[in-house]
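> example.struct
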């Protein structure tokens, strides 16, 4: 039997879809045949993205969602279920990054990152997971990072949040798989995006990154999308509770 990587007809709810990796994921998921429920804080940005996807022959609807607000999470999930009839896949992509010395982290910075990267991610998974459990099927894909697997200097809070994502992924996978819902995570290395360009375009910073990347180059959004599509597709049906590293060998050292 040939593996099936198509997402034709699948309803995918994607958080953090308005920019960066999320924007690229939306295009790639639509290209794989998915129907997109695009979620982010900026509704105008989502409307433009949805229009692009529709113009290319796809299906997409925008939804305003700040993952720090539990009421908004519940409302968005209900709206997606109402508009599409079901939720087949949740891609928990909304997240914040950081690059600061541990001794300089403030309580407000800690709380904001944990609220988005871990708390918001969990309650999105819980809300969509309830829909999927009632359906008897579903896929949840959490966006993690290599920084959740190995320590990276000046990423104390970020690493803590992504380490939490990794173990949360495993627990949800254990609890929900028998009822038809698999839960996995994708953990990328440094990915070139408009948001990371300022650092990665700096030759000195890039040299330090490449010194740790055996593959010799940073990743692309397409690299991340390939992993997400695999886990969301029928081809990834036996994968559960896994943190799939897309890291060029960074964590092999």
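> example.seq
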């Amino acid at each position: 039997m040939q593996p099936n990587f198509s997402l034709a007809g699948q309803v995918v709810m994607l958080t953090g879809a308005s920019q960066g990796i999320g924007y690229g994921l939306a295009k790639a998921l639509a290209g794989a045949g998915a129907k997109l429920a695009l979620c982010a804080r900026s509704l105008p940005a989502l409307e433009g993205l949805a229009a692009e996807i529709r113009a290319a022959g796809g299906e997409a609807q925008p939804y305003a969602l700040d993952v720090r607000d539990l009421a908004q999470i519940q409302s968005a999930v209900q709206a997606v279920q109402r508009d599409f009839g079901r939720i087949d896949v949740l891609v928990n992509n909304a997240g914040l990054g950081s690059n600061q010395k541990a001794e300089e982290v403030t309580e407000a910075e800690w709380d904001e990152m944990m609220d988005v990267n871990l708390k918001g991610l969990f309650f999105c998974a819980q809300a969509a997971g309830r829909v999927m459990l009632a359906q008897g099927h579903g896929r949840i894909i959490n966006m993690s990072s290599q920084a959740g697997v190995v320590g990276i200097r000046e990423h104390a809070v970020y690493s803590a949040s992504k380490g939490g994502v990794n173990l949360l992924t495993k627990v949800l996978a254990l609890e929900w798989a028998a009822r038809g819902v698999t839960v996995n995570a994708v953990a990328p290395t440094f990915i070139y995006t408009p948001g990371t360009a300022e650092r990665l375009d700096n030759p000195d910073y890039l040299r330090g990154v490449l010194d740790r990347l055996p593959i010799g180059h940073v990743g692309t959004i397409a690299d991340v999308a390939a992993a997400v599509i695999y886990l969301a597709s029928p081809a990834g049906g036996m994968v559960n509770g896994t943190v799939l590293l897309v890291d060029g060998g960074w964590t092999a050292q």
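> remarks
Residues 11-190+221-246 form a domain with the Rossmann fold fold (CATH 3.40.50.720).
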